[in-house]
Amino acid sequence: MKRNHAASLIHGLLLALIMASSGCEVKNPTEGVRVLFNEDPLTLVTVEVVDAKTGEQIITAAEDGVRLSVGGKDKLAVTDLTEKPQTLFASRSGFFSFAIAESHDVSTAEPVKLTLTAESGGYLSTSSSITVTSTGGTFTIVLIHRSNPPEGITSDTNFDGAAGSEGTITETIEISSQPDPRTGIESSLRIPEGTVACDADGEALSGPLSASVTQITLNTEESVSSLPGGLFTSVTLNGVAHDTVFIPAVVVALELSDENGRIAQTFDRPIDVSFQIPGDTVNTQTSEPVRDGGTVPIWYYDDDSSSWVYETDGTASGPDARGNFTISFTITHFSYWAGGWEDTSGGICEDGLTVRVNGGFTAVDVKFRKTSDGTYFSALTKNVSSSDPFVRLSESPDNIPITVEAWYGKDPVGSVDIADLCGADIDLTVFIPGKAVTFSVEVYDRDNPDQRMRPNRGIYIDDNGYRKYAGYMKDGVITIYGLTEGITYTFWVFHENTWYSGTHMIGIESSVELEFAVEP
């Protein structure tokens, strides 16, 4: 075993982290180390907030440029990495890490259920529900940039509106999205003169106004990945929520804001909304195509519950010259709005299959996509560790052919095709090309070198500019796969809104022992 006393930056990053965390009040740094690291591993959750077009983590200049709030029925179980209760996070980059309190019993049978809401300047905010088991996990939230959306999403903004001092809109505001290049469909918004718009706190908007309409057509992989809740999600009908496959014909996001940053949430009277759907749209309940005079269910996305809530029926008129139908309706509050039906053709099984991941890995993401068109059921994505290499599904869509994939960062490292998610358990074999290196890290007091400990903490690795989760270091030991000899890698630890990084060049050895002293 090679012993490296030079500061491979796992060494340096941990020292920086410990020194920053212990602070001046801790007289003995080893005590600070022990409090922070020398405990059983936490149930660790990491969240990436990425741009819908680039797929990259959102990076901002401001320290709080990307914000994440955690809600849901188990939100009180959420802590920072030092186990202090925390549900609001902010960062310069679209990456967050938090834990589930040790006092909260987490298991596959009793998972923690949370709602994550992400926002950043210039982007449409959105939320997503996650389920956390004892192994934790890595989750991704996709945000749409209004001025730079991906293919399949179009947007436009009107800056001509205004409201008086008491919030009354002085002139009717009308705006439409840019037409979708493939189908020509577009969405529009009309707010009548005299309407009073208020934010979530009941404060009226005033002064110059900007209104935007963003249309999601769900005809590209990027647009589907931007769908709030994903394809397999919760819908609420007649006050009762249930999980289902929900593939709307179109989704539209509506926003109105003033120069003070207030964002309209409610209106004192109905406002007019219309969107178009392609002429080949099929009612999944009847298997019949949409016709002139037919009804289309209208739903809005509730961020608090991460559920699509049925609101009303819209009436189809058309087709127009391109074969598209227009659906018109009125609303009194803003959100994501969608027209479409549940896909109940396959049904839902209460107990889904179990995926057993085999091969050499520390942590991989297991994803599920429809084999027919490649769209992902993002709500089912799970991060799997070698210590618990299973994905145990429940309440899963039935009778839909699925491709199960393993991903290590941005690289697919294994896949298997299955008939549906409700059949026999399956094996998913992972192969990560490259070298596997086991790192062992020890921390000791310079004045008392016999007093040593091995830390517990998640580690991330920079892979060609993409920061990916390498795994959880247990008692100072972790094996990282996919490395290349002669390459210097940057390793990262995230703690209290700060990244700490360090480098190490991979040699011929398969194990490296790192040790470093903590200054008294």
Overall morphology: globular
Number of domains: 4
Please give the share of residues in helix. under 10%
Beta strand count:
40
Q: What amount of the residues lies in strands?
A: over 45%
Low-confidence stretches: 1-39
- CATH-derived topology of the largest domain: Chondroitinase Ac, Chain A, domain 3
The CATH class assignment of the largest domain is: Mainly Beta
Write the layout of secondary structure elements.
Elements: E1 2-4, H1 9-22, H2 29-37, E2 43-51, E3 66-71, E4 78-79, E5 88-91, E6 95-100, E7 112-120, E8 123-124, E9 126-132, E10 137-145, E11 153-163, E12 173-176, E13 187-191, E14 197-198, E15 207-216, H3 221-225, E16 232-237, E17 240-245, E18 250-258, E19 266-277, E20 282-283, E21 288-289, E22 295-302, E23 307-317, E24 325-333, E25 336-339, E26 348-359, E27 363-370, E28 382-385, E29 390-397, E30 402-408, E31 411-418, E32 426-430, E33 435-445, E34 448-453, E35 457-463, E36 466-473, E37 477-483, E38 488-495, E39 498-505, E40 511-518
Parallel strand pairs: 1-40, 2-10, 16-23, 26-32, 33-40
Antiparallel strand pairs: 2-6, 3-5, 3-7, 4-6, 7-9, 8-10, 11-15, 12-13, 13-19, 14-19, 15-18, 16-17, 18-25, 19-24, 20-21, 22-23, 22-25, 23-24, 26-29, 27-28, 27-30, 30-31, 33-34, 33-37, 35-36, 35-38, 38-39
Question: Concise description?
Answer:
With 520 residues, the protein is mainly beta. Residues 1-39 have low confidence and may be disordered.
What does this 3D model show about the protein?
The chain is mainly β and 520 residues long. The protein folds into 4 domains: 1-38 and 437-520, no CATH class; 44-145, Carboxypeptidase-like, regulatory domain (Immunoglobulin-like), CATH 2.60.40; 151-339, Chondroitinase Ac, Chain A, domain 3 (Sandwich); 348-430, Immunoglobulin-like (Sandwich). The chain is built from 3 helices and 40 strands. The strands form 8 sheets. Strands 11, 12, 13, 14, 15, 16, 17, 18, 19, 22, 23, 24 and 25 form a 13-stranded mixed sheet that branches. Strands 1, 33, 34, 37 and 40 form a 5-stranded mixed sheet that branches. A hairpin with a 2-residue loop joins strand 33 (435-445) and strand 34 (448-453). Helix 1 (9-22) packs across helix 2.
